[in-house]
UniProtKB/TrEMBL annotation:
Protein name as catalogued: Type 1 fimbrial protein
Keyword Nucleotide-binding found: no
InterPro entries found in the cross-reference section: Adhesion_dom_fimbrial (IPR000259), Adhesion_dom_fimbrial_sf (IPR036937), Adhesion_dom_sf (IPR008966), Bact_Fimbrial_Adh_Pro (IPR050263)
Secretion signal span: 1-20
Fimbrial-type adhesion domain span: 27-169
Organism superkingdom: Bacteria
Keyword Signal set for record: yes
Keywords, ordered alphabetically: Signal
Amino acid sequence: MKKKLCACIYLLAPVLNCWAADAVTVNVTGNILAAPCELNGGQDSLSVNLGDISASKLQEPASFSDWVSFSITLDKCPAGTTKATINFSGTADSAHPDDMYINTGTATSVAIQLQGAGGEGFGNGQSYTYTVHEGTNPSYALRTRVYSDKGGATSGTVIAAVTATMTYQ
C-alpha cells in the first residue's frame, strides 16, 4: 500500500510543476468621485401648480396671471463644493425665448414665463451660478406665471416641461 501511494505521488509531481507558471501583474484602477448634492430632498421632479386662472384675465395683449413662487434646494453637498450652476432647458417660446416656454397644454395664446425671484430670465439655455458656503443648503428662488403676448387666450390646460440640470464645483 505504501508503494502505491508513493508511485501516485511521483506520477503527480510533473503535473504539480505546471502550476508554477509565470507571474501575472494585476493592475486595479478607478476614480473616487464626490457625491453630488441632493436636489429637493431627493425628489426627481418638481410640480408647480399655477391654479385656476380666468381666461378673461388673459384677453388683452401682454396680460398675465399672478406669479407663483417656488424653489429648488440643494442638500447634502459634499465638503469642498464651492459653486453650483443650474441650467434650464426646454422648448422656448418664439416671441420671448429669454424667459418663456411654449405651452403644450390645450389653452391657446399663452406661454409659461420662468424667472428668478429677482426678475432674471430663465429661458432655454439660461443658467445661474450660486456660491455654496459649507454647511448651508443653497436654494434657487424662482417664480412662474402664464403670459399672453397677444391676448385672446382660450380656456384649457397649461403645461410646460423645463429641465433644470445641476453641475457642481
